[in-house]
Structure formats: structure tokens, C-alpha cells
Design goal:
With 188 residues, the chain is mainly α. It has eight helices and two strands. It has two domains: 108 residues, Rna Polymerase Sigma Factor, Chain: A; 78 residues, Orthogonal Bundle (Arc Repressor Mutant, subunit A). 67% of the residues lie in helices and 4% in strands. The longest helix is centred in the C-terminal third of the chain and has 24 residues. Belongs to the sigma-70 factor family. ECF subfamily.
């Protein structure tokens, strides 16, 4: 009886799947460097567990499922106490004092520019929280179109939706974001 176990082609993963996996990751973590790291971690994990591939799904689907776990692990880490202590905030983007500070060591005295920067960061965080509360497809389309500035045709092809469907999703996402921001930022 011939060997019917499906075979993987790791030498073709980068050419065949890297762009797709990167786009998948960057929409979920909103950080291109982190997305690249997660894709790299996905390929490494896939190589390590290649013997477990049973062929019940396509190679791409299998790699996406590994990437999903990597994204979940990332969010679990940053939401843990230890992970929060490791989150770094950038202060002094240029000049002699350039560098990163641990969040726990942030200076307690602020000048007016610092207050505005913190307020802008809080606004950004609230907007991100509102985007995260959108249905997954709305959040994905909204990020791809308005934040990452993908072309309409590219999004439609990637997500297998029509242009009119994309604009309906964008409209609904904006409506829900407006309501969320009004409830959680402007009225607080």
C-alpha cells in the first residue's frame, strides 16, 4: 500500500504564504514588525510540528491556524502582569534622552506637551479598543482600508467580497466606532 500521508512543502511557504500570513497578522496586531515576527514564529513552529500535519486541511489553512495561536499567545502575554511590565513606552524620540522607559518607571511630573501626548495616546488606545469591539470582519476591513490604506480591489480580492459590500462594512464600522467613541471617550 503506498504512503498516503500528505507532504508539506516548507521550501515554498515563503513564496506561497508569507504575504497572506503577514496581512492576516498585521490586521490583528496592528504592528508590521510584530506581524513579521509572528509569521516567522509560525514558520518555525510549523517546521517543528510538521510530523503532526495530517492533511485534513490545506497547507495554508494549517499555517493560519498556527498563526492564530501565535496571535492569541501574544495577547495573553501582554495582558498578563508580567507582560504589562515588559510593555515599553517610547519617550524622547530624538535627542540626547532618546530611549525606552519601562512603563513602571514613567516620570511623575509632566509638562503641558506631555499631557497632550498622553491624552493623544489615551485617545488612540480608546479608538483601538473600539475597533477591537467591532465584529471581526468589520475590524479587519476597517483597518485594511483606513489604517493600512489597502486598495479597495486588493481588500475585495483578499476577503472575497464585492466593492459595495466593502463600503457597507466600512459605513457600519464607522457608525459603530462613532457610537463607541461617544460613549467611552467624549462623554467620560
Amino acid at each position: 500500500m503506498p504512503n498516503t500521508k500528505p507532504t508539506l512543502q516548507p521550501d515554498k511557504w515563503i513564496d506561497n504564504y508569507a504575504d497572506y500570513l503577514f496581512n492576516y497578522a498585521v490586521v490583528r496586531v496592528n504592528d508590521s514588525d510584530l506581524a513579521k515576527d509572528l509569521v516567522q514564529d509560525t514558520f518555525i513552529a510549523a517546521l517543528k510540528s510538521a510530523k503532526n500535519f495530517q492533511g485534513k486541511s490545506t497547507e495554508r489553512t494549517w499555517l493560519v491556524s498556527i498563526l492564530k495561536r501565535k496571535v492569541i499567545d501574544y495577547y495573553r502575554k501582554i495582558n498578563s502582569k508580567k507582560g504589562q511590565a515588559e510593555v515599553r513606552m517610547n519617550f524622547y524620540v530624538d535627542g540626547e534622552q532618546q530611549g525606552n522607559w519601562l512603563e513602571e518607571r514613567v516620570p511623575q511630573s509632566w509638562d503641558n506637551a506631555s499631557e497632550k501626548a498622553v491624552e493623544n495616546e489615551e485617545l488612540k488606545d480608546q479608538l483601538e479598543a473600539c475597533i477591537d469591539n467591532l465584529p471581526e470582519k468589520y475590524a479587519m476591513v476597517f483597518r485594511m482600508k483606513t489604517i493600512q490604506e489597502f486598495e479597495t480591489e486588493e481588500i475585495c480580492k483578499e476577503l472575497d467580497i464585492t466593492a459595495s459590500n466593502l463600503w457597507v462594512i466600512i459605513h457600519r464600522a464607522r457608525t459603530q466606532l462613532r457610537k463607541c467613541m461617544e460613549d467611552n471617550w467624549f462623554n467620560s
